[in-house]
Structures are given as C-alpha cells and as structure tokens.
Amino acid sequence: MSLRPYLTAFGLQWKIGLRYRIAVVAGLVAQMWFGAVTLMAYASVYHAAPDVQAPLSLRQAMTYTWIQQSLFTLLPLGCLPAIGDAARTGAIVYDLLRPVDMWNWWLSASLARLLGNAVPRAVLLACVAGPLAMLVGLGAWSLAPPASLISAILALVSITLGALLSATIVMGWNILTARTLSPLGSYAVGTPLAVLLSGMLLPLPLYPDWIRPFLLVQPFAGITDIPIRIYLGTPIPGGVATGLGLQIFWLAALTLLGRLWMRQTVNRLEVQGA
Amino acid sequence: MQTPLSTSDAITVRDLRKTYRIREGGSWRGKTRDIVALDGISFSVPKGQIAGFIGPNGAGKSTAIKILSGILRPSSGEVQVNGLVPWTNRVAHVARIGVVFGQRTQLWWDLSVGEGLALLRDIYGVEPERFARNRARLADALDLGGIMDQSVRQLSLGQRMRAEIAASLIHDPDILILDEPTIGLDAPSKLAVRAFVHELCQDRGTTVLLTTHDMHDIEALAERVIVIGHGRILADSPFEDLRTTTLSERILELDFHDTPPELTLPAGASETAREPHSITITFDPRQIPAPALVAHVGHLPGLDDLRISRPSIDEIITRFYADHAA
Q1: Whole-angstrom Cα distance, residue B133 to residue B91?
Q2: Domain with CATH 3.40.50.300 in chain B
Q3: Do β-strands B224-229 and B278-283 pair in parallel, antiparallel, or remain unpaired?
Q4: Do the Cβ atoms of A16 and B20 come within 8 Å?
Q5: Which chain A residues touch B108 with a CB distance below 8 Å?
Q6: Per the CB < 8 Å rule, is A93 touching B20?
Q7: B125's torsion region: left (phi>0), alpha (psi -120 to 50) or beta?
Q8: Keyword Membrane, does the record have it (chain A) (predicted)?
Q9: How close, in Å, is residue B86 to chain A by CA atoms?
Q10: Contact predicate A170/A110, CB 8 Å
C-alpha cells in the first residue's frame, strides 16, 4: 500500500492550516491575554496561602499554563473543518469514492490540520513567553525551561503521542459528523470535553485528590497534560512510563474502537439526494 | 453466488433490491418504516456503451448509482462492475471508475484546478508521464487551458463542471458515472459536455452510465435508455423504440389566411385545436401515413402553410411516466 495519498492529505491540510496567518496572530494575542490573566490569578491565590503544599509550585503552574495556552489548537475541539463542510454539502460522497483507507486518509488530514494550527502558534508563544519575557525582566512570569535534558526528550516523545491521540479523538468527531451530516454536534460535545478534561481550564494536577486518579486515566489527559508533567518533571503516579503507557493504551484502544465505528458508519452512510 | 455473472459486460446488475429503514417522528422510540427504493432491478451494460438511466424524482436512480459506485450497500442482489463487487472490493473498485455528481464538487475550493488534479494524481497513484498526457488531453478537450491556475471557488458553473469531468477522468477509469452532469449549464456548455462524452466513448471505449433530467442529454448521447420508476425497470430499449411504443403520434399544423373550413378527417386523425387562422391535427402514422393525410388536406381553400412535427422528448417521457403511474 502506497503512503502517497496519506502524505498528500497531510500536506494539503498542513498548508491550509498555515494559510490563515492572521488567525495565528489573533490566536496568539488571545492566548497571551488568557495566559496572563490566569497567571495573575495563580499569583494571588499562591501568595494568599503560602503555607499550603500545592501539587505544583507557582512557577510550575505558570509554565503549565503557558504550554497549555500555546497548544490550545492541538486540542480535539471538533471535527476537521473540511469534513464538516463536505458533510453539509454532500461532497462527502467523494471521500468514499477515493481508493484509500478512509481511516488513514482522514487521520492524516486531521493530524496535519492540528499540527498546522498548533506548531506555528506554539513556537511563537514559546519565544514570547520564554526568552523574550526573561529579557524584558518578567522572568518570574515566564515559561520555565524543561526540568532536565531527559525530561525535554521524553516530553517531545510524549507530545508526539499526544498529537496522534488528539487526531484520533478528532476522528471520533469526524465520524459523528459523517453520521449526523452536520459538524455542529462535534463542536458542541468536543469543545467543552477537550477544554475541561485536557487541563486547559485548570491544570489536572490542581484538582482535588479524590478526582485526580480519574482525570489522569481518561484519554484527554494524554494530549497535553501528561507531556507537560513530563516537561516539568512533576511526579506522575507510577512514573513517566505510566504516563507514556496511558497515552499508548488510549491511542491503541481509540484506534480500534474508531475503526470499528467507522466501518459501521461507512456501511450505513446514506448521503441525501444526488 | 449462483451462476457467475457475465464478464464481457462492464456492468451487470441482477435482482438488485434496497430497502431503507427510516425512523418516523425523529424520536428515539419512534416507529420505523421500510421504504423500498429498489425492488429487484436487473440490467447489464456492455463495454463502451453509453446508457441513459432516467426516471422521475424518487424513482430509485440515485440509490442504484450509489450502489454501483460502491458507496452504498444493497439489501440483496448481485452487482459486478469490471468484474468486481463494488461494496465488497470498495478500494479496488473505486480506483477503476470515475464519478461526477453534478450537484456536488470533488475539487478543492481552496486550490486551483491544476493543484486539484495533481492531488488526484497522488490519490490514484497515476504515474507522472501518464498524468502529464491525460492532463494535456483533458485540458485540450475540455478547454481548461485558461482556468488551470484559477482557484475552484472562482470558476463559473460551466467551467467548474468541465473541471469536474476532467477530475473524474485523470486516472483513466474504464467506467464513467455521470449524475446530472449538465444541471444548471447554459446551452454552449451543455453542448460541449455532450460532445466530450460522446468522443470519450468513441475514442477510448469508456463505458458511460448517465442519469439526467435533461432529455436532450439522453437524445444526444444515449444509445439506450433504461427507465426506472417505483424501484423497478419500466423500459430498457433504444430511445426510438420508446418513442414508437409510447407516443408515436405526429402533429400536423395548418395555417389559413381566413377562417379555416370545417374538416372531414380520415380514420386515425383528429382535430385537436382550432384557432382563428389555424388548425392542429393529431394523427397516428400507422393508421394514416403523413403523405396521405397531406394529400387529403392539401386542396383545402385558403391554406397557406403546413408543418408536421413529432412530440418533443419531454412530452414522450411525461406521457411514459403518466402511463406507468411513475
């Protein structure tokens, strides 16, 4: 089986993601703003209760926030826009008419779209919140460097798994879109779930003790939370291996379930009219 | 499978049935109702033929087209296209067919026509030399030279449809399925599309299955027309046969420079309209041949002009649907 169609799908969505340069700048400003507000909130909370032994130090909470903000567009917020459009117009029939494995075809496109959106923003925001913030004397508020070289390497592996996991969850939204012939449901379900469960709203390590084990083992933790913990060098129950293991487990499990759901969907997909 | 289906035909369909189960009221617990879209249709199309596939809205055409394209699974029946069962060998099957749905676009809005074709080259794995050859040939035949670098969203409907047809043929499919390829097109664009499809079939031996509501497409292109209604095949014959069996009558129009006289007409002819200066006569040429009728009325006083015409293809089809309550 040739890889070429999948690389083509990847290349196309990557280019489309990069095409919206103004969206990158606008997104960057929004994320800087939300990041700064969140940081100030943390600062006042931490200073108000200096004796409490928090799971993350203030500096770690700030770094966690910066990385989350920079990776916002890596989250599975809804379906791939191209599939949403195709479902609405009925052009989705043409996707079924291509001699490709539908799962891999949509997955490569979804992954490319996530990366095309997230990579430029992440690099820019990391530069601004990291070195630039330090240079202008905001070092205490800046993005801290990784805990160690090993942490940096493992975090890179982990975020790669996280991106794949996110694209796999997007596949779920894509299939939902193909079934309902509308992208709206995927956004209605996807955005709150992803924002809440990924740790975007509040870092998962800062939730109450009793709910933390659940939050760690649910699939959305594998997108950004586990990579950030590895980057920060904060302990993960069971160690880094558990973190990576959870990511791989969810990747495999969701791929298996997703492929079954997709096969069932393709068999019953009835595109209206023609 | 019982006896193997013939392999000399490009498309073979035997006793194809499809029932949709729809939920009424849209609620979770709503009752379901079965709708029979195809109620056992059989036909075959030999290689290199252009077959017209027509029927009123809701007759089951789209369902049949989707099954033949491999994107819908029938409830029962046998289908072979190029010797493959479309829904079980989806990937191998779709690699060898080209499909144009006139109301949808397969090109990418954000890309130029040329970029879109290059993308399809990668998807279908067309070798570079073959791609260059096909691209040049299609650009020439479909007059795409000026729009190769334009993005698809900027194209007019006629330009877009020509680009869509090129997109469906870039991988040299053996079978081309055209679903309303001339919908919304102006007259020159329709003629261009028809001429291209005709040449494609003649020069390359491509088998074409054409569905349309534009009967002029059928008249211009199809050697054979399959009429479907209520999920069944109502007729499967050359178009001329359909004309003879459905609406063989002719129309004779007589113009007078004064009030037309009273007529006594031979059997098989009857007066169907009378105006201050003209009379319309409908006649069956099997009962009264046109020359005999003309001889009969030719001596009428005050006759200026006369014209004989056949019912239009639209009238024939309308009558056919009415006769079959389709």
Answers
A1: 24
A2: 9-243
A3: unpaired
A4: no
A5: 12
A6: no
A7: left
A8: yes
A9: 11
A10: yes
CATH architecture assigned to B9-243: 3-Layer(aba) Sandwich (3.40)
Among A99, A178, A96, smallest CA distance to B72 is for A96
Partner residues linked to B255 by β-bridges: B278, B305
Contact assignment for A94 to B20 by CB distance below 8 Å: no
Residue B215 tokens read as: 């009967």
Tell me: the pLDDT tens digits for B159-169? 898 999 999 99
Residue in B255, B226, B259, B254 with CA at minimum distance from that of residue B242? B226
Min Cα separation A185/chain B (Å): 16
For chain B, residues classed under CATH 3.30.70.250 are 248-310
Whether residue A114 contacts residue A13, with contact meaning beta carbons closer than 8 Å, is answered with no
Q: How far is B228 from chain A (nearest CA, A)?
A: 16
What percent helix, strand, coil does chain B show, rounded to 5?
A: 35, 30, 35
Q: Do A4 and B69 touch (CB under 8 A)?
A: no
Q: Does B31 touch chain A (CB under 8 A)?
A: no
| ipTM beyond cut 0.90 | no
Pairing outcome for strands B224-229 and B50-54: parallel
* Cross-chain residue pair A89–B105, CB shorter than 8 Å: yes
For B248-310, CATH gives: 3.30.70.250
Each residue of B18-72: pLDDT tens digit? 988 777 665 566 677 888 889 999 999 999 999 999 888 878 888 899 899 988 8
